[in-house]
Each structure stands twice: as C-alpha cells, then as structure tokens.
Amino acid sequence: xxxxxxxxxxxxxxxxxxxxxxxxxxxxxxxxxxxxxxxxxxxxxxxxxxxxxxxxxxxxxxxxxxxxxxxxxxxxxxxxxxxxxxxxxxxxxxxxxxxxxxxxxxxxxxxxxxxxxxxxxxxxxxxxxxxxxxxxxxxxxxxxxxxxxxxxxxxxxxxxxxxxxxxxxxxxxxxxxxxxxxxxxxxxxxxxxxxxxxxxxxxxxxxxxxxxxxxxxxxxxxxxxxxxxxxxxxxxxxxxxxxxxxxxxxxxxxxxxxxxxxxxxxxxxxxxxxxxxxxxxxxxxxxxxxxxxxxxxxxxxxxxxxxxxxxxxxxxxxxxxxxxxxxxxxxxxxxxxxxxxxxxxxxxxxxxxxxxxxxxxxxxxxxxxxx
Length: 371
What we know:
By secondary structure, the chain is α+β, with helices and mostly antiparallel strands. The chain is built from twelve helices and eleven strands. Strands 6-5-1-7-8-11-10-9 form an eight-stranded mixed β-sheet, with helices on both faces. The chain has a three-stranded antiparallel β-sheet with strand order 2-4-3, with no helix packed on it. Strand 9 (about 250-255) and strand 10 form a beta hairpin. Helix 6 (about 90-110) runs parallel beside helix 12 (about 340-365) and helix 7 (about 175-190) packs parallel to helix 8 (about 210-215). The longest helix has 24 residues, at about 340-365. The chain is globular. The protein starts with a helix and ends in a 6-residue tail after the last helix. The model is unreliable at about 285-290 (pLDDT under 50).
C-alpha cells in the first residue's frame, strides 16, 4: 500500500515536474475528468509501483495515497485512460525524452552530481509480442523462435544507472542510419557538465555509421566486432601471444579497415581453445592426419590506447546494462505493449522509462555522502 510513492511525489514537487510537463508536452485533446498533467502523473506513478497494464489501475483507483497525490477522490475508469493514451500523437515520445533531459539537469544540480566523464552503454532487447501489434516482425528472437517481436534500442548511463535515450523499434534489425540517429539523440540528452564520454556497445552496433557518430562527438569507444569472413581471416593470420590478464588462451591486436569504412582502426582479439566434442555413441573415433587446434574468437574495435587486458575488463562491465534492461522490463513494465497501434506503444514505452528513471533519481538523492 505504501510503494515508496510519498518520497517520489515529494521529489517531483521539488523538481517542478508539473510545470515541466505543461511546458513540454503538447496534448491537444481537451480532457474532462482530469487535467493532462494528472493523467500523465497517474500513468507514471502506476507504472512505478508495478501496475504495467491499464486495466490494473482499477486496483488502486481509490487508494488514498495515490488519489491524494493526483488530487482526485478516485481515478477515472480504464476506458478514460485508454482514450487519453490513444489520443497522444507521434511527437509525444520525443517530448517525453526532452522532459527527461530537463529533469535530469535539475536532478544533477539538486543532488550535486558533478560527473565530468561518463560511460554510456547501448544495447537492444527483444520483446515478444502476443497480440497483433503494429510493427511486429519475425526476426531475431532466441527465447521464442518464430514469434513476432519488437527490438527497442536503449542507452544507459553506467555511473548513475539512468536511462538516457532510446526508442521503440520494430522487430527488424536497426540499420546504420538508425543507430547513428539514436547515438546523436543520446549525446544531446547528456547533461551539459559532461566533457568526456566513454561508450560500449555489442556487435549489433558494429557499423561505420556508429563509429562515425562516436568520432564526431569525440567519444572514446569500444565495440564488439562482428566476425565477418575477412575479419576471421585476419585473426587467423595475426601474431598471437599469451593473455595473462584475461581468461583467454591468447590475445592479439592489429590495424584493420573493414569494407566500407573510411580508415583503419585498432582491433583487439581474444581466442579460446575449443573443447573437443565427444564422439557420438556407436560411431568409431576418427583420427585426422593433420590435427589443428580450433578456437573461438572475441574481437573489438576501439579508439582507446589502453592495454588489451584493461580494455577487455572495461568492456565486460557492459553486462550491467543488461541487468538494467531486465529491471526495466520486469519492474517498470517496459515489455508491456498495450495497444495495436505503434504510436501508442511508443508513447507508453517512454512513459515506462520515465517511471524507471524516477527510481534512479530517488537513489541519487539518498546515496552515501562520498559516493
């Protein structure tokens, strides 16, 4: 029944959330039962306490704490929230991102966050669709193969765990232009005090457009490389040496220019010896005339100059972003796509991530003095 709403409501009041919402969001629909701000606040707080579906709101419609924060005797029925959410146009998603950017500036100033260097982690996730949502595709979906899905793009700040920017993407793999556009949105959303940016991304973002976007911003990056035939050939010809500072059997580095890129970059690689597969039952063991060891490879492209072991450790910390995505999916209702219309789901997606950020900002105000 408590749900941590009172500290969140106090924080939003101190940050001037109401005035920011009314200045930033342009909702043309004339609401009757509540104001536009009250609708947005109700949806965000419901997502914050774990009610990711609109029909769940009936369980807290008369809750005295939630109704008291919204300043209404009780929340309107589900159909009213549906009409409001469906009336939001496509530009609202971008405006919610702008709202979060302005809130972030105020949070960092009030909580005395003085980060000059930050690390951004960019990743995609797969949301399996169980309805007939617009934009669903049968694409990469390892847990539910053959089912339609969305593939949202998300970027988090490693130091504060905040969601910086993202978008709901259809089930197709994002193109290089879409990745570059997303990265430019991320750079715009960072607070003005940030001077140095470190970036990490997996092989889904291995393309010239992404590298170009990083370089234009002066960002120091490390990206997992996709193992193309040309790159694998380069790995096999490289000069390998032992790797005492990693868990790999060997390491190497070299300059390499992938096809379509404008210049060569520094590539790092690790290799792991494959375990021999046991022979199948009933099959005689066969011996090869020339038995050569086979390896598994990990390769990265980077603009940094640190040693291989240090950069490998730095990249492995990117696993924290996957935990943040899992937290947003499970706790903030990110994976709940309530409508068949893509625009409505896009707006709901950004509201869910605003609810996720409320918890991050609350933790910033309650951190240890020297953290």
